[in-house]
Amino acid sequence: MNESWHAAGPAVAARAVTKTYGNGVRAVRGVDLTVPPGEIRAVVGENGAGKSTLMKMFYGLEQPSSGEILIGGRPRTLRGPAAAIALGVGMVHQNLMLVPSFTVAQNVVLGVEPGRRGLVDARAAVEITARLAEEAGLAVDPKARIDEVSVGMRQRTEILKALHRRAKVLILDEPTAVLTPQETEDLFAAVRRLRDGGMTVLFISHKLREVREISDQVSVMRAGSLVGTVPTADATERSLAAMMVGRDLSLDVDRAAARRGEVTLRVRKLGYEAPTGQSLHRLSFDVAAGEIVGVAGIEGNGQSELAEILAGLRSPTAGTIHVGGTDTAGLGVAGHRRAGVGYVPEDRLHNGAALDESIADNLVVDRHDRPPLARRGVLHPKAVRAHAERLIDQYAIRTPDPSVPMRALSGGNVQKVIVARELSAGPRLLIASQVTRGVDIGAMRFMYERLVAARDDGAAVLLISADLTELLALSDRLLVLKEGLLVGRFDDTAGLTEKHVGLYMLGVEHHDDKHLTAGLAAGEEPTP
Amino acid sequence: MSSVFDVVFSSAFLAAALRVATPYLLAAFGGLVAERAGISNIALEGQMLAAACTGALVAGYSGSVALGALSGIAVATLLGLLLAALRLELGADAIIAGIGLNLLASGATAYAVYTLLDDKGGTSGLDSGTLPTVPLPGIESIPVLGDVLSGQNLITWLAFLTAPFVAWLFYRTTFGFHLRAVGEMPDAAASVGIPVRRVQYAGLALSGALAGLAGVFLSMGYVSFFVRDMTAGRGFIALAAVFLGGLRPWGVFLAALGFGAAEALAVQLGTLDVPPQLVSTIPYAMTLVALALYAWRRKRRGVGEATPASL
Amino acid sequence: MTSTLIETEDRREYRATRRRGLAVDLSMTLATVLAALAVGFLVILATGKDPVAAYEALLTGPLERSFRVGRWLEDATTLTLLGLSVAIPFRARQISLGAESQLYAGALAAATVAIFLPLPPVAAVVVPLVAAAAAGAGMGFVPGSMKARLGANEIVATLMLNAIVVRVYDYLVNGPLKEPGSSAVHSERVQQDSVLTPLTDWFGIPLGRSNVGLFLMLLTAVALWLLITRTPLGYRIRMTGANSDFAEYGGIRVPRAIEWSFVIGGAVAGLAGAHLVQGVYGRLEPGMAGSLAFEGIVVALLARNNPLVVVIAGLFYSYLRAGGDIMEQQTDVGTEIVVVIQAVIVLLVTAQALPDLLKRRIARKQAAQKQVGAR
């Protein structure tokens, strides 16, 4: 069906496309976008700007509520991915769409298997994969099982999948989020090679540096609309950022200088051997009462593991952790909470809330078994309700009633419930992981104010974020993680630039051990 | 003790083991196909029962054993499709819908038999006949082997061929390839344009058909009548064999064969001084222990190997 | 600021929405039952019988004579206890199918104590009950801890335990516990002091084998409702069922909550066994639970695992069972049709998308009407 491409027309285009979901949310509003063949087009925007929804419409996973999708210069109705694939569109999803127990080769050919009369020719699948990998410069082991290869190889497998389907348009949805810098470089080289061979590439990202490096033109989306398209050569990170957020990028958060108190969190030579994911090696740092310490790093460099260890959800395999004098390394979650640890988890839908239960019940998970909510083994629903009413009021949670199930709330409001629960416990140490991910600007500002207020009340705050701007705006001190190692430590964040921190995140620069451990009391060292 | 060995190595026992294992094998493969397609088929029991009843009734009234068997299989296939529809179209929980279908089969078969034959117990008043056995000229006369292999029912042979068939289907054919992808990672399958629901419907139809074949064997294999609730929990045991076999064709084959052999042994030992009820608990106790060991090992390894989400 | 529909409602509006939702749920449940009865009606009609006479017997029969009422209540007591026993693990999202093994374990424990252990009057009733609950709880603990600590599939574990316990029970009733010198297969009678007082003695009218176990059942239901809604353990069980990752993150020891849900459910199923031994049969009978254990699951489902609603569902379900027997005696329609009706109820209840589908269709129709009105 690729023959039906109109030679002179755009490779992909949207004309006045609008997408309104069943629940009334309008994700995409009247977007006009034209991408000529053989171009790498970056589409940037904040979380929730509508980038992914627009791409899903190009790939047939969503259908526009109004407007037209054009593939190969002609208007198309894409009823599903099969239709888009047939027209030469391939997509690499943010969460990779691979079958874990299948080999790389099997995943590449899945859906378009070589062989005759309903049989799969396994050898041909391996040969095809090897040949495609060779041509595109994407190194993979065709016979390895997907669940046993690196994330980078999984992503290359995804691209090979699209190539095997003779894609002329390749959509990459936030492809670098999970990659190491080296893998990112390799990916970019491969993408350029594909472009030179005539491929049209749509590159979705919110990392402006990468966008400037890889794309020919940049289209910026904001709140569902297309704000504009500029040649990459004419764009600066600052000008793009201004278009993306529609406000001055500097997130001025009102905060006085930190008044550091006693050391609250003391981590020494922390090690973690991960069965899956990132291991941690010999981490040593302090967080004092009354300061916010940011943790920067490209996602997947050990931040999630560190947060879960400090919250008690995983056990470290080496080293010591003390929270306010309590040795927490061997304690469970409840023990950590007793020691005064609060945790805003990075994925609120996964473990931050029970969506089908009420707001009131969600607010008491850590304190349901003690006064004033429970006395002598009896839980008092009235007390639970009153507790919820109070927090709903204090944290401006928008709901008509505490009995509303969490599922009915918007993302920002769910996050407010979680933050309300964790802060109202009066934590000595608060671990805040991706607090503003996927929330709107109003809620974002609210979170910032609360974090600073908690700090000023004497909490030690460990702030983990993928958003460097946010980290620089909020942190009193900053640590940088790379591949499970501490590689940077900035005791003064004033005047620190994203660019400078980026060098540490990417491994171009690193601090030496002496600088990293300067001033850390040695008293809690484990005896060897 | 020697008497136990005498029993185990007698040709009568071995022949009985193959016979008794037949419904377990077929139903277990039915369960396996559904499980790998991502929908647990706990309705195996009901599908067997419905097929057994339909087979005996149709054969009895039409006089055609083949027609009876085919109708039985068809009814079980429809029940498989119904389970898929309840799950996929109406968002039902597969386990609960399966329990509902089992109830439906139990009530409907008993009601049908009572209404048609005015008999609470079964269709023994109806002459429905049995499916043919397969004599093996030549092998027949070999001492032990002949007694064991020759004269087994046609369906027993089919049951033993099911293992290589399912293995071939899973690992060699496009359909099996898609089925496994759909069961393990439906989003991934959908994103490459595989019609996920259609594959699941096909899988559940095949699952039902295999359970149906097992049911038909019960009422038309060695006996020629249907007895109320004659499946007696075999569907559930088959399901246990699916898990015990690690969701792999040959593992399931061994597990189901083991259940059959143990049951045959219990019957044969009934002639000795051992309480048959206690002997017959052995395979279930073994499954329980195996289940615990398997889970323990998986837990120690830290990560579960890729298995369908329904586990 | 983006927000959802509910967030923008005010409190009064929200309460109205909730009342409407409740009304829809209630009418859906009623509609489900009516639809299932209609299916049964059509099946009877299709098989050439008189559905009106059959339904008259089915629906009014159980109330016509006092001993029939007794038969109904006695059946409802066992069934409701079994429904309660699975409702608790279901709340922790554990699909326990083990009520059968727990019931037989409870029956064996109750019978052993009540037959062989001489006890003073009140203790003679209470001790066997406690023994039964303990035995059932132990039988629940096995699959519970296998699931909680090892992650072993609870469906398979409970089914295997059922298979084992049913056979052991069969062996014991046929062997060691068989009444000496009797030709019938059953155990000796329990001591007179251990018998749960028949309701006939209380009310002075013949109420069959129904007994004070009925009140025990009602007490159990209320206790379980309080447990789920008013205790920290109940909260932990609910949160574990709602999202176990969330529960763990909140400091709840999820394996413990899962284990407790199995143990509590097992104890209740054990009581059901004691009710059969001390109240209904007065001894161990072979296969005395029949298919009740599986039907308990249906009752729990129908009641959406709310202990108080389980009582209503159990009473309703048993009413159909009792009515079915009367229907068979009085007409030529087999009692099995009741099982078909029950199956249809289960299938309709589990078809969760069905009410949403209907709601959406209603909403669409209303929207269409509005548009027409606007023109």
Secondary-structure element series of chain B: HHHHHEHEHHHHHHHH
Low confidence ranges of chain A: 523-528
CATH architecture of the largest domain in chain A: 3-Layer(aba) Sandwich
* Mean pLDDT level of chain B: 84
How many runs of DSSP E, i.e. beta strands of chain B?
2
Q: Give the helix proportion of chain B (percent range).
A: over 70%
Query: How far is the N terminus from the C terminus of chain B?
Result: 41 Å
* Class by SSE composition of chain B: mainly alpha
CATH domain fold name of the largest domain in chain A: Rossmann fold
Strands of the largest sheet of chain A, in order across it? 6-7-8-3-9-10
Portion in strands of chain A? 15-25%
Give the SSE layout.
The complex is a heterotrimer of chains A (528), B (311) and C (375).
Chain A: E1 12-20, E2 26-35, E3 40-44, H1 51-58, E4 66-71, E5 74-76, H2 81-86, E6 89-92, H3 104-109, H4 122-136, H5 151-164, E7 169-173, H6 181-196, E8 200-205, H7 208-214, E9 217-222, E10 225-231, H8 237-245, E11 263-272, E12 280-288, E13 292-296, H9 303-311, E14 318-323, E15 326-327, H10 333-338, E16 341-344, H11 348-352, H12 359-362, E17 374-375, E18 378-379, H13 381-394, H14 411-424, E19 429-433, H15 441-456, E20 460-464, H16 468-474, E21 477-482, E22 485-490, H17 498-505, H18 513-517
Parallel strand pairs in A: 3-8, 3-9, 6-7, 7-8, 13-20, 13-21, 16-19, 19-20
Antiparallel strand pairs in A: 1-2, 1-4, 4-5, 9-10, 11-12, 11-14, 14-15, 17-18, 21-22
Helix pairs in contact in A: 14-15
Chain B: H1 2-8, H2 11-36, H3 44-62, H4 65-88, H5 94-117, E1 133-134, H6 143-149, E2 152-153, H7 154-172, H8 174-184, H9 186-191, H10 196-220, H11 234-244, H12 249-269, H13 276-279, H14 282-301
Antiparallel strand pairs in B: 1-2
Chain C: H1 5-8, H2 11-46, H3 51-64, H4 66-91, H5 99-116, H6 121-150, H7 154-174, H8 199-203, H9 213-230, H10 232-242, H11 244-249, H12 254-281, H13 292-302, H14 307-330, H15 336-350, H16 353-374
Question: Can you tag this structure with a few keywords?
Answer:
heterotrimer; A: 528 residues; alpha/beta; Rossmann fold; 3 domains; six-stranded mixed beta sheet; disordered C terminus; B: 311 residues; mainly alpha; two-stranded antiparallel ribbon; 14 helices
